[in-house]
């Protein structure tokens, strides 16, 4: 059996069409949704990510402001910029691209963003809201994964979901979202003994590790749904996920490709959060 593809690009296009309509409705009542993106330093990967985010904003009609700062920007100066954006009525969402240069305390910076403008969903107020099942902004990558699962029509109630990775931006919020959808959730990490023992029992596997093709076909139950969050370069410099795609697709029921899977949905959920923020701020 060859797995069916979950096409993140196609699903993103659908979502972005709907978001364009919501932006038009906001504009019709005089509201222009605005996202501020702050980039500190010249990390090449971060430069690509912020460019893609700004481009996507443009596509759906969100006004975006890209602020680039030199790597030696002081923490006080950065916090002052965030505070200014917090009170800027033209800005509904604020995103500080991570990682930050070492001398800057990412936690302090994120905590300075007003929670109602924290469209990345990293502020403890939003993380806490997810934890207790209250409304708030959900982190974009796991949110995008949930939308992909919804799209294929899987009922997660009673399913066993195994999340590999426990970072604050992907693994942990992913596990909480799956739990909220009534899955039985196992979280694996670098200290997990016998990872394959867990993944082989999974109806749904979300791999968010950052190790090229680490999830191999023998670790997957036939028919399982496999969501690949990883973005890696293999030894030959080729872009790949955490899943050994060619082999796993012969075993799984559904699988996301890399590229063209979770990546585009992550940016789409950022756009959705920004439109939500503008709607909430002006309701
Ligand atoms: P982190 O490095 O923060 O977390 C990786 C997690 O994987 C950790 O919890 C770590 O465990 C766990 N891990 C490491 N090695 C193993 C192992 N051998 N077995 C089991 N678990 C292991 O990464 P992120 O969560 O930020 O990102 C994960 C991947 O997703 C990366 O490839 C990243 O590039 C990609 N990514 C993709 C996005 C997208 O839009 N598609 C967005 C964000 C990230 P421990 O906690 O014990 O160290």
3D structure, described in words:
This protein is of the alpha/beta class and 283 residues long. The chain is 41% helix and 16% strand. Helix 1 (8-28) runs parallel beside helix 10 (262-281), helix 6 packs across helix 7 (171-180) and helix 6 (140-151) crosses helix 10 (262-281). It starts with a strand and ends with a helix. The model has no long low-confidence stretch (mean pLDDT 98).
Layout of helices and strands:
Blueprint: E1 4-5, H1 8-28, E2 34-40, H2 44-60, E3 63-69, H3 75-86, E4 93-96, H4 106-112, H5 124-132, H6 140-151, E5 160-164, H7 171-180, E6 184-188, H8 195-199, E7 204-207, E8 225-228, E9 232-233, E10 239-240, H9 245-248, E11 254-255, H10 262-281
Parallel strand pairs: 1-11, 2-3, 2-4, 5-6, 5-7, 7-8, 8-11
Antiparallel strand pairs: 9-10
The structure holds NADPH dihydro-nicotinamide-adenine-dinucleotide phosphate.
EC number: 1.5.1.5, 3.5.4.9
Subunit structure: Homodimer.
Catalytic activity: (6R)-5,10-methylene-5,6,7,8-tetrahydrofolate + NADP(+) = (6R)-5,10-methenyltetrahydrofolate + NADPH; (6R)-5,10-methenyltetrahydrofolate + H2O = (6R)-10-formyltetrahydrofolate + H(+)
CATH domain fold name of the largest domain: Rossmann fold
Q: Which strand-content bin applies to the residues?
A: 15-25%
Helix content: 40-55%
Low-confidence stretches: none
Query: What hetero molecules are bound to the protein chains?
Result: NADPH dihydro-nicotinamide-adenine-dinucleotide phosphate
CATH class of the largest domain: Alpha Beta
């Amino acid at each position: 059996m060859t797995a069916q593809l979950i096409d993140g690009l196609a699903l993103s296009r659908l979502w972005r069409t709907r978001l364009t309509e919501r932006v038009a409705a906001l504009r019709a009542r005089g509201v222009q949704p605005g996202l501020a993106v702050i980039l500190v330093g010249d990390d090449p990967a971060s430069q690509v990510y912020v460019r893609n985010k700004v481009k996507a904003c443009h596509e759906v009609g969100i006004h975006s402001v890209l602020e680039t700062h030199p790597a030696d920007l002081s923490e006080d100066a950065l916090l002052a910029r965030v505070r200014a954006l917090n009170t800027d009525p033209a800005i509904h969402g604020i995103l500080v691209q991570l990682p930050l240069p070492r001398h800057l305390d990412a936690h302090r910076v994120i905590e300075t963003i007003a929670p109602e403008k924290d469209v990345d969903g990293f502020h403890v107020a939003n993380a806490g809201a997810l934890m207790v099942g209250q409304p708030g902004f959900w982190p974009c990558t796991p949110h995008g994964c949930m939308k992909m699962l919804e799209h294929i029509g899987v009922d997660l109630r009673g399913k066993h979901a195994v999340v590999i990775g426990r970072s604050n931006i992907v693994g942990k919020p992913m596990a909480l979202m799956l739990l909220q959808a009534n899955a039985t959730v196992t979280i694996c990490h670098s200290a997990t003994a016998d990872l394959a023992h867990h993944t082989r029992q999974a109806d749904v596997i979300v791999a968010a590790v950052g190790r090229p093709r680490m999830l191999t076909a023998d670790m997957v139950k036939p028919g399982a749904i496999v969501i690949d969050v990883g973005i890696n370069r293999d030894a030959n410099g080729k872009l790949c996920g955490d899943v050994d795609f060619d082999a796993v697709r012969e075993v799984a029921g559904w699988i996301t490709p890399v590229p063209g899977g979770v990546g585009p949905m992550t940016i789409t959920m950022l756009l959705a959060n920004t439109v939500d923020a503008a709607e909430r701020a002006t309701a």
